[in-house]
Write a structure and sequence with these properties.
The structure is a homodimer.
Chain A (H helix, E strand, L loop, with lengths): L2 H8 L11 E4 L1 H8 L15 E12 L6 E9 L32 E5 L2 H4 L5 E3 L1 H6 L12 E7 L5 E9 L4 E4 L3 H8 L6 E6 L5 E6 L17 H4 L1
Chain A binds a DNA duplex through helix 3.
Family (chains A, B): Belongs to the ARF family.
Subcellular location (chains A, B): Nucleus
Protein name (chains A, B): Auxin response factor
Chain lengths: 231, 231
DNA sequence: TTGTCGGCCGATCGCCGACAA
DNA sequence: TTGTCGGCGATCGGCCGACAA
């Protein structure tokens, strides 16, 4: 999976530490993410934070939901080499809420949260002008109406086809034919987000972010780690 | 699962030995049914047929495909008690091909292989007259046209609703509303069979037989059991 | 008796501009 | 600029009798 598309899908709040950098590994956070109701009192000898070196990073996407995640290989560090590089050790996703795209100069991706009209069966997708003009291929505005076919690769490399038209009064950009099929196949709902990315080789890519995550995301879980402080 | 419906779905070719009867267990046939390419040369000590007593029988149906199967508990017999009751020891299914319903006096089930028109999307189901008159609830032929609602339980106990009408010139029995939904939900194809059964308590039941079995059914597999004879 | 076909009618899909937030 | 709505034409699902195997 292209790291560029991966980061566009994950959003700016998801930070991945550089390869070979030194980070802290938090077993509690890891286990709370992976499973519920693990009782750490059974493992009293585990250190709450473990200095590690980032040995490998794999950018992945769930085959069913398209949700992106990373598999990071960590090697524990021995005694003296415990200097951690920066404060970005904790892998945490928190891209919910309206995202402010604070890209530097060349924003090559755009995310939009689907409205009811976007997700409604039988409807089209209202393309924000900024997205159509900076991310999509150039449209021939001299035609009447201006129309083109958009091809976009998803995180699995599958290509999706959309009809992109500029019409209506006032004029606006819309995705029509192909859109409802995409919504149905990906099981998108109002509130989910769609990401368009123009990759470095000029290819258009498409990713999604679910409003409701496939796993986890529930209310806080007590792992028994700090029960002494709360009881 | 009702054994009556089970046998109607399995067809007359599927024989199940009586409880507590004595049978031969064939490990080779069993393993060839369960897995492919098991090399029996690794287990040269296994006897090719094992006298057993039938300790339990469970009539089951696959949750996904509705295909019926039986789980038979066998207890190996010691030395002297090896008298096998009859020749029905090998559990084998072979219901393919047009089945001849050679029921004795009270045929309470009927099977039909779906035609292209039956399975075609948007079409109905042409009910053979014999099935409509002997299995279905009595239809009021004085109405114009004669119509009734059919309720039928499948192997999971789920109830399906069909509109049964007697119309056309010449007159014939048809299932219309509800039929295409049944075909789609069960993923039926032309060549598959449908079984209607009137159970002892008068309930109507419906089962299916797939033309292509969910598992197995492929070409012959060499298990290495008799390699000496073939090489 | 029953399998297949074309007709036909109603429901749904999906593209459209109007309008307003 | 863009979200939602009603309109409406095209398509599809599904019920029908005609006809023939």
């Amino acid at each position: 999976l292209d790291p560029q598309l991966w980061h566009a899908c994950a959003g700016g709040m998801a930070q991945i530490p550089p390869l070979n950098s030194n980070v802290y590994y938090f077993p509690q956070g890891h286990v709370e993410h992976a499973a519920k109701n693990v009782d750490f009192r059974s493992f009293p000898r585990i250190s709450p934070l473990v200095p590690c070196r980032v040995a490998s990073i794999r950018y992945l996407a769930d085959a069913g939901t398209d949700e992106v995640y990373a598999r990071i290989g960590l090697v524990p560090l021995r005694g003296g080499e415990c200097e951690v590089d920066d404060g970005v050790g904790l892998l945490e996703f928190d891209w919910n809420g309206e995202e402010k795209e604070k890209e530097k100069e060349k924003p090559n991706s755009f995310a939009k949260t689907l409205t009811q009209s976007d997700a409604n069966n039988g409807g089209g997708f209202s393309v924000p002008r900024y997205c159509a003009e900076t991310i999509f291929p150039r449209l021939d505005y001299t035609a009447e109406p201006p129309v083109q076919t958009i091809l976009a690769k998803d995180v699995h490399g599958e290509v999706w086809k959309f009809r992109h038209i500029y019409r209506g009064t006032p004029r606006r950009h819309l995705l029509t034919t192909g859109w409802s099929n995409f919504v149905n196949q990906k099981k998108l709902l109002a509130g989910d987000s769609i990401v368009f990315l123009r990759s470095e080789n000029g290819e258009l890519c498409v990713g999604i972010r679910r409003a409701k995550l496939g796993i986890g995301g529930g209310p806080e879980v007590s792992s028994g780690w700090n029960v002494g402080a709360t009881s």
